[in-house]
Structure formats: structure tokens, C-alpha cells
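From: lab user (bench 3)
To: helpdesk
Subject: output format question, protein + flavin-adenine dinucleotide

Hello, I'm new to running complex predictions and I'm not sure whether the block I got back is the full result or only part of it. Here's what I submitted:
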Amino acid sequence: MTPRLVLAGLGHSHLFILEAAIQGRLPECDLIVCTGEPYHVYSGMVPGWLGGRYEADEVFLPVEPLVRAAGATWRQAHVTGLDPVARTVTLADGSTEPYDLCSVAVGSIPTGLDLPGARDHAVPLKPLDNIRQIVLRLEALAASGGGNVVVVGGGVAGVEIAFGVAARLKLLNAHARVSVSIIGREPAPAMDRGGRVIRRVQKALDRNGITYMPNTEVVAITPSSVETAAGALAADLVIWATGPAAPPWLAHTGLATDDRGFLLVDDHLRSVGMPDVLAAGDCATLDSHRGTDKAGVYAVRMGPRLVELIQHALGGAPLPKPYTPQRNWLALLNTGDGRAIASRNGFALEGEWAMKWKDKIDREFMGRFKKVVSR
Ligand SMILES: Cc1cc2nc3c(=O)[nH]c(=O)nc-3n(C[C@H](O)[C@H](O)[C@H](O)COP(=O)(O)OP(=O)(O)OC[C@H]3O[C@@H](n4cnc5c(N)ncnc54)[C@H](O)[C@@H]3O)c2cc1C
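Helpdesk reply: Thanks, we reran it on our side. This is the complete output you should expect:
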């Protein structure tokens, strides 16, 4: 019988599996892709989309042509469960898909959404196409005369989103009437990137008129404010850009997880103790490198390794060499004003050249997968 390879989610790593299928590099299998969303949204270009640098179609990879070119079957529903004993995944419509080999790349969700009012009154960054809603809300604010935008989360993603908001407000000619603030628990923005990066980020925030509120714990969101331990802040739009949390259903699969609920995988990206389940990207934690950041850079690097493991598991190819994550990663932070901050290992440089560099890397990534479809 032809083995069934089921892909749960279409995160960055799974794009490489579809590319391999299109190029005839996958062993013979029935390939089934389970995702409810018609597009893969490329996170690296999302702040630029928000800021008006890119159009939506530059940031989106449509699922249907990719799946069709790969000769795969698309089940258009999100995965809600996985039974590693019965070897099935369950979809949101209640149906199940049996598998011989399953790979999971469903990303992460923002932390803290269970705070009072957060789900009702804040716009979370995931799914990433919530950016459409944010743009509409900014347009309405601009038309209404003014207001306050608050980004909750002072990490790299929150900061980059705030730059995107400021850039969009400039396009709408509303930057003088709409304030942009970031609320962070940490004493400084982009804290985990190190001292020099923090100083550059703070300067860029000042240049773009964005306020960072340090050491601030959000306790609730109302329709018109962010409630913090220190008092209330008026807010017409709250964007939820906190750090990554595990999708809750992963914890109910019986698969090994880390203490935050992410799937624990070995150095071949196989679920610890359940080698016919693979996982990659934000939803996976390497057992041997549990402190590795959740970043798109790793999700992308894991893609080709998944392909090699599938060639091994279904095609008899030799076991690939173990995957070791790079210790530091290059972050290119779009400041929304034509510049970017390049940082790695605590060092930072900034300029228009860095934005051009980021643009080239991002366009090449998207171009790679658009090209395989159009061939
Ligand atoms: C604004 C922003 C900017 C960022 N910029 C950078 C950057 O410049 N560099 C960097 O390295 N990192 C960046 N990150 C972090 C990066 O986005 C994540 O680390 C990366 O997206 C993780 O990739 P992934 O493939 O694991 O998941 P995702 O890209 O989130 O993909 C997961 C996919 O699975 C789908 N899915 C989710 N749940 C299910 C389900 N139950 N069933 C089926 N499908 C499901 C989702 O719809 C999505 O298509 C940024 C994050 C944000 C929010």
C-alpha cells in the first residue's frame, strides 16, 4: 500500500516538503495537507505589509496551486487533534485522516490571550492575516480624527509591528493625530537581543514617535482601555503581540511536550518516543536545545531537514545527520521608515542598506515557492 504522509499545518518548514514533492524528490506517498487557511502568510514581510511597503499578494502564498502542483490532497480544515496510537489526525470538521508518517508545523499562538477582555477587545497577531483588520481599524481611526494605538508586547515582533503601525499612519497622514505606544514587561524594548540592539531600537522608536512603556504588566483589556497594574491607558486599538505559546491541542495528543506545551522532538525532528510524528517550527522544541528561540529562521532551516527525514522514513535513504540549531540568528528589524536594524549576537547596525538586504532575503524566500508553482 502507498504510505500516507499527512502534513498538519502549512508552516514554513512544510513549504519545503511541497517543493520536494513538486520537484520529484519525495518518495512515493499519498501526500495530504491539512490547513484551514487558503494562504501561507510569510511573517518576515508582515510588518512591511502593515506599513504599506508590500501588497497582500506579495506576502501570501496561496495553498491551492502549491498543493495541486505537488500532486497532494488539500483538506481545508484546521487540525484539532492527533492520536499517535490510532495514527490519525482529527480535523475541525470532525473527520479524521489516517497516516503512516505525520509532520506537524502549526506554529504558535500569542501568550496571555486568556487575560480578561483580551480575546474580545484586542487583535492578536495570529493568524497573521489579522493585519487586514488592523489596517481597516487604522483607516477608521485616521478618518475619525485621532486616537491611541497600543501594542502589547515589547519583543522584536511587537516592536516591528509598532513600526508598521507608525508607517501606515504616516501613509494615512494621521501620525500627528494617532499615538502609538508599546507596553512591555521588560525594562527596555527588544530586551532579549542585547544592549546595543536595545539602544538602536529605542532611537528608532523615538525617531518614529513611538512610546515604550517599560516594566508594565497588563491585567485586562476593555473596549476603550488597557488596564495595567499601574493604571489604565486609553486605547482605541489594542494589538496583541506577546511571545509564543503552544497551541493548546498539542498537550492533549499524548505526545511528549516541553514545560510550555510545545512538541518535544529529537535531533531528527521526530517526536520523542513517537518517531512516526515529525514536528518543526515554533510548535516544536528540540529536546537537546530547549532554550532555542521560536523564530522563523529556525522554521526555515528545519524544512530541508524534514525532507531528508521523509526520504529516510519512506524511501529508505540513510538517516540524515542530526540537526543542530545555530546559536545566534540574524534579525533584520524593519523600522518602517525605509531603514532596518540588523542584529546578531548582541551587535547591531542600521541603515537603508539593511532594509534593502532584508527585502532581498524575503523576496527570494517568497520567490522560491512562487517559482515552483509557476513552472
Ligand atoms: C510580526 C512578526 C514578525 C516576525 N518577524 C520575524 C523575522 O523577521 N524573523 C524571524 O526569524 N522570525 C520572525 N517572527 C517569528 C516568526 O513569525 C515565527 O517564528 C514563525 O512564523 C514560525 O514559523 P512556523 O512555520 O512554525 O509557523 P507559522 O508561520 O505560524 O505557520 C503555521 C501555519 O500553521 C497553520 N495552523 C495553525 N494552527 C493550525 C492547525 N490547528 N491546523 C492546521 N494548520 C494550523 C497556520 O495557519 C499557519 O499557516 C515574526 C513574528 C511576528 C508575529
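A quick orientation on your result: Residues 8-13, 34-37, 40, 43-44, 46-47, 78-79, 105-107, 125, 127, 157, 160-161, 247, 281-283, 294-297, 299 surround flavin-adenine dinucleotide (CB under 6 Å). Let us know if anything else is unclear.
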